[in-house]
Amino acid sequence: MKYQQERIDLAAAFRMAAQLGYNEAVANHFSLMVGDQGKHFLINPNQRHFSLIRASDIILLDANDPGEMDKPNAPDATAWGLHGGVHRHVEHARCVMHVHSTYATVLASLKDANLPPVDQNSAAFFERHTVDQSYGGLALESEGERCARLLGDPKVQVMIMGNHGVLVLGNSVADAFNRLYYFERAAKNYILALQTGRELNVLSDEIARKTAEQLDDYGDQPDRHFTDIKTILDRQGSDYAS
Q1: Which domains are delineated in the chain?
Q2: Which of 7, 70, 207, 215 is the most exposed place for a label (fewest CB within 10 A)?
Q3: 197-200: long-range pairs with CB below 8 Å, 24+
């Protein structure tokens, strides 16, 4: 099957996301641009639970062809609206992961949904996330186009979707999944710190910026992390690669 390794990687990401509790019923989507030409991308099939998705289930779409929604295997309308919009307009968004994971969504529900650098994990996202404060309903085509316009800065890796969830960008499945994992951890640490009711010890901009820059180029950790994820799934006897 065309783009077999890319499909396998996406399927592995879905399976591990389900194990970590990032999924929400049969909603949410991961997508990956493929090929050097055009705007083709892989994405999960319509309303399939993350824990059941196999490489062979993943569909291939052309972001510039609205006729995709008229085909028998058409994706969910919000998948087309959000991911199609991002892949059409955001060149650096090779892999896009959108979830309603618990702590990222709690953060997105706050009046001030910014993530301050209160620990090393959150410092990794200093000046690398944006907050969408104009939620306009389900991420259908017009909403997806609006969200895509907020992602023009290549430095921005995460969009906290106010009143909604989180959108994470990466240059590969491994890169995006690693970022999603660390963002959810950072959001969790921040929310739990808020729950203590005690004063937060926020890092200075100087130290937060230095930490983020150091972590921007921290070896091959995303690939190593994702290789081990696939090893875990293989040892569990998962059929994700089929």
Answers
A1: 4-235 (3.40.225.10)
A2: 70
A3: 200/116, 200/118
Contacts of 106 (CB under 8 A, 6+ apart): 187, 191
Quote the CA–CA distance of 30 and 148 in Å, as a whole number: 15
Q: Which residues contact 137 (CB under 8 A, 6 or more apart)?
A: 143
The pLDDT tens digits of the residues spanning 6-51 come to 999 999 999 999 999 999 999 999 999 998 767 899 999 999 999 9
Q: HSE of 226 in the Cβ direction (CA atoms, 13 Å)?
A: 20
CA pair distance 242, 240, nearest whole angstrom? 6
pLDDT digits (tens, 9 = 90+) for 181-226: 999 999 999 999 999 999 999 999 999 999 999 998 887 999 999 9
Structure tokens at 37: 């030409």
